[in-house]
Amino acid sequence: MVKMLMAIPDRCTGCGRCEEACSFEHFNIIDPSLSAIHVVRLENEPLDAPTFCIECGLCAMPGVCPENAIYRDPNTYAVIIDRNKCDGCTNCIVVCPYGVITLDHIEKKAVKCDLCGGDPQCVKACPEGALAYLEANDAAYYKRYFFAELQKKGMVPIVPYPSPRTREAI
Amino acid sequence: MDEWYGYTGKILRVDLSKNKIIIDDLKREWAKLYIGGLGFAAKIMWDEQVPLIDPLSPDNLLIATAGPMTGTLAPGSGNIFWAFKSPQTNFWGETRSGGKFGPFLKFSGFDMIIVKGKSEKPVYLYLEGGNAEIRNATHLWGMTVHQTTDTLKREVGAKDISIATIGPGGENLVKYASIMNDYDRAAGRSGGGTVMGSKKLKAIVAAGGYGVRVYDPEKFISLSYEAENAIISDPGNRAMGAHGTVGGLMGLNAMGGLPTQNFRTGYFDKARKISADYLENNYMIKRRACYSCTIGCSRYSYVAAGPFATPPNEGPEYETVDMSGAMPMIDNMEAIIRYNYMANNYGIDTITLGHTISWAIEAYEMGMITEKETGGIKLKWGDAETFLTLVDMIAYRKGFGNLLAEGSYWAAKKIGKGSEDLVNHVKGLEFPAHDPRVESKFLAIQYSVGPRGACHEHPIYPSYDMMGVDSGLRDVGLPWPLPDRLEEVGVNRGKAYRVIALYGEVINSLGYCNFYAATNETGSLSPKRLAALYSSLTGFNLTPLQIFEAGERSWNLKRAFNLREGLEKSHDKLPKRMEIPILSGPAKGLKVEKPNELLEEAYEGFGWDKETGYIKEETLKKLGLDDVADYLRKINKLK
Q1: What is the pLDDT of residue A43?
Q2: Across the interface, do A127 and B107 touch by the CB < 8 Å criterion?
Q3: Residues of A whose CB is below 8 A from B107
Q4: Which range of residues forms the domain containing residue A106?
Q5: Does the structure show a pLDDT above 50 at B83?
Q6: Residue A118's domain is classified under what CATH number?
Q7: B105: nearest Cα among B151, B158, B153, B68
Q8: pLDDT value of position A170
Q9: Which terminus of chain A is more exposed, N or C, with fewer CB under 10 A?
Q10: Is A130 among the domain residues?
Q11: Mapping DSSP to helix (H, G, I), strand (E, B) and coil, where does residue B133 land?
C-alpha cells in the first residue's frame, strides 16, 4: 500500500534533526537551508512545527513547469522534481501553497521532498516520534483531525452575555 | 588530504578597534592535538592572550567556538562555547550554551570567531556563507535580548538565522552578564556578556549558507542513529527529557542537598511548590530541544495572569529554580518563571544573580548590610516582590543594584564586616545549586580546581558516585567501583576525578552537551562512541585514549593560563561554609571534612605539585607542551 508522511506537531521539540538528515541524504552535506523539511518555531508562542510537502501535486499540473521536470512517482506517489531538467524558474515555488519548495543556494535549482524513494530519512532521525510514514488509510484518520483543527473556533474570554457593549448597540 | 570534514576549516578574526576582519585557515595538526571547541580556545588563549590584563580592556579576547561534531547528526552536538578572561574571577572564563547558534556558526562557514579590540560605537557581526561583516548596531543598543533578536530577524528578512546577543546586563557591565542566543538559551556563567559589552559588540548573526561535510557518510549516519536509539531508550535520559533538569529537585531535597537559604541548609520544606511536577501541571506548555538534541530537556512555560504574568519562554532550569526558589526561600513558581524571563531578557546569569541576592539577604539579616546601603529596601527571606525589584535594579545598576551588579564576591569585599564568609564561591564564581557537602566529594574537588571557578558542569557534572554510573569510562582507566559519595581521601578519588574531568574536556572540545555523559555506558556518549563518531566524521583516526590525551592537553593549558594569571593554591580553596556542618534537614551535620587532603589528592591525580598546585614539568613534556613548560619555568611556576 502507498504510504504517506505525517507530522504530529505536539511532539516536536524543534531539534532540527530532520533538517540535517534531509540535507545529508540529498546533498551529502549537512546544511538545513538545503532541506526539504523545515521546522518552523515561533518564539513567543508554543509552536514547533515540521513543515514539508504533502505531495498534493499542484506543481506537477500542466503549464507550471516549463521544462516538464515535475512528475509523480508511480511507486511512492511522491511528486518528484527532475533536478537535471530544472532551470530554476521558481514557477513551482509560486504555486506551492505551503512554501515547502525552495531554491538551493548552490545550484539554484528547486528542492522538494521526494520521500527518499520510500524510506524518509527525517522519520528515522526524529527522536520524538513526531514524524511518521504511515499507510494511507491510517494517515487518513489523522488527516481528518488536522482538517477538523482548521475548523476549530478560537477560545474567547468568558464575558456576561449579552455584553454591555452589545446591549448598548441594540 | 586537504579537504576538511566535520570542521569548516576557517577561523574568523575580528579586530573591533581597527574595524577589520581576517579569515584564517585552521591548522590541520591542531585537530589531533586539541580536537576543537574549548580545546582550540585554550590553545588560542594561551598563545595570543596578553597576560595580566584587565578583563574589560580591549586586549581581552572573546572566543566563540563550536566543536567538530557541532552541526551534524551526532546526538547532542548543538552547542556553542565561549572563552575569555573572566571579569568575575580574573582567571580563565568559559561558558556553554545550546540552542542553534553553534550549529549555525558552522553552517555560516566558521569553526571559531576570535574577537579582540573595542569598537567606538555599538556594532554587530553578520556571518553568511564563509563571509563576515561588521555592521552598525547603534539602534539596537539598550534593547533587551528578545527585542534585539526580533529586530535583527526583521532586518535580515526571509532567512533561517540564529542570533547571539547581550542584553542591558552586558551593556551596563553587570559583572556576571550572559551571552544569550536564540532568545532564551544562555551562556551564562563567568561574565561573557560583560566582556562582549565592554567591546561594544551587541550581537552576532549567523545566517547559514555553508554545508558541513562528512568523511564517511554511511558509517557516520549508522553510528549516529545507533547512538540516538541507545540514548533515547535509556530511562535516565527519558526522565531528563520528560521532566527537564528540574526533575531532580525533589530527590536532592530528600537527601538534603537542595541548597537553601544561601547554603545554610540543604532542605527546603516547601520544595513541592517549586518542583517539576508543579511546573508541569500548572505552567508548562511544551518541551523544547536544542539543535540536534535527542533528549529535549528544555521547558517552555508561561504565567497567564497576576503580578508575575510572563509571556511564554524557555525555562526555568533547575539552577534557576533553586537560585530564585530555595535559596531566597521563595516558594512561588510564578515568581520563579518571571525571574527566569527577566534575567534572560536582561542577559544576566540566573545563578550568580539569584545567589548574590540570597547572599545580600543573609548579610542584611546578620546586620552586615543595612538600610543605608540598600537605600531603604528591607531584605527578607521569601519576599518575591523585592527579589524581582532587585533584578531590575541590578540590570541597570540603579542604587543598591550597582553594588550587587558586582556579584557577591566583589560586593562582600566592598562591604566587609565578615560578609566575605557568607559568600559561597571559588575564585570569585558563586556556587551553582549543587552542594559538595552532600552530593559527592568529586563535586568538592571540581569546585576547587575547576578552571573557571566553582561550577557543576565545567568540565562535567562529576557526581558519578552518587549516580552509580560510569558512562563507559572504565575503558579509559576509571577505577571501579567508585568510592562511596561521602568518602573523601585514600579511596583513589584523585585518580578517578582525573578521568572524569578529562571526559568533560573531551565533551566540551568535541562540541557535545554534558547531559549525554550522565548515565551508564549504553545510554551515553561513551569514549568508544566519541572516538568512532569523530573518526568517521572527520577522517582523522583517533582512539579513545588519544582523544583523552587531547583533553588532558586543554585541561593543562587552562591550568597554565590560570597560573600565568597569578593562580596559587589559595585560589583553589573551598569557602568557609563548606567546613561548617549543614544546619538542618536530612543531611544535617555533613561537611567537607578534609578539603586540603582532597585537593592534594586531585593535584597528584593530574600530575601537579602537591604543595603548590603548579604543573609538573614531566606532565607537560608528556603532552608535548614544552613551550608552556618553558614559559612557566620563567615565571617560577613549574615544578
Answers
A1: 84
A2: no
A3: 30-33
A4: 3-136
A5: yes
A6: 3.30.70.20
A7: B68
A8: 45
A9: C
A10: yes
A11: strand
Q: What is the ipTM of this complex?
A: 0.91
Q: In chain A, how many domains are there?
A: 1
Residue A53 lies in a domain: yes
Gyration radius (Cα) of chain B, Å? 23
**Burial per residue of B252-261, b for 16 or more beta-carbon CB atoms within 10 angstroms, e otherwise:** bbebbbbbbb
Greatest alpha-carbon pair distance for chain B in Å reads 68
How far apart CA B134 and CA B637 sit, in angstroms, is: 40
Q: How far is A169 from chain B (nearest CA, A)?
A: 30
Residue A154: what pLDDT? Answer: 58
- pLDDT tens track for A84-111: 999 999 999 999 999 999 999 999 999 9
Average confidence (pLDDT) over A114-127: 95
Residue A145 belongs to a domain: no
Tell me phi and psi for residue B387, to 5 degrees.
-55, -50
Please identify among residues 226-255 of chain B the ones whose CB lies closer than 8 Å to any CB of chain A.
228, 232
Q: What is the pLDDT of residue A152?
A: 74
Interface of B with A in 75-104 (CB under 8 A): 75, 78, 100, 103
pLDDT reported for residue A3: 94
Among residues B160, B46, B619, the alpha carbon closest in space to that of A16 is found at B160
Residue A162 has pLDDT above 70, yes or no: no
Residue of B nearest to A124 (CA): B225
Per DSSP, helices labelled H in B469-613 are 493-510, 527-538, 544-564, 595-606
Cβ of A24 within 8 Å of Cβ of B293? The answer is no
- Cβ distance B209 to A20 less than 8 Å, yes or no, reads no
Cell numbers that stand for B624 in this block: 608535548
Q: pLDDT at residue A164 above 60?
A: no
Contact B286 A28 (CB under 8 A): no
The answer to whether residue A148 scores a pLDDT higher than 90 is no
Chain B residues touching residue A14 (CB < 8 angstroms)? 288-289
Give the pLDDT score at B2. 74
Exposure of B182 by Cβ count < 10 A (0-12 exposed, 13-18 middle, 19+ buried)? buried
Please choose, from the candidates B344, B314, B317, B315, the residue with its C-alpha nearest in 3D space to the C-alpha of residue B168. Answer: B344
Q: What's the pLDDT tens digit per position in B591-612?
A: 999 999 999 999 999 999 999 9
Helix axes B441-449, B595-606, angle to 10 degrees: 70
B154, B213, B237, best to mutate vs chain A, most A CBs in 10 Å: B213
Q: Does residue A157 belong to any structural domain of this protein?
A: no
Does B72 lie at the interface with A, CB-CB under 8 angstroms? yes
Does residue B1 carry a pLDDT above 80?
A: no
**Are the Cβ atoms of B288 and A33 closer than 8 angstroms?**
no
Are A59 and A92 contacting, i.e. CB atoms less than 8 angstroms apart?
yes
For B:281-310, CB contacts with A below 8 A are: 285-296, 298, 300
Pick B447 or A151 by higher pLDDT.
Answer: B447
pLDDT band, residue A153 (cuts 50/70/90):
low
Alpha carbon of A92: minimum distance to chain B alpha carbons (Å)? 18
Q: Is B82 helix (H, G, I), strand (E, B) or coil?
A: strand
Cross-chain CB nearest to B290 (options A15, A21, A24): A15
In chain B, which residues have their Cβ closer than 8 Å to the Cβ of A20? 71-73, 292
Give the pTM.
0.95
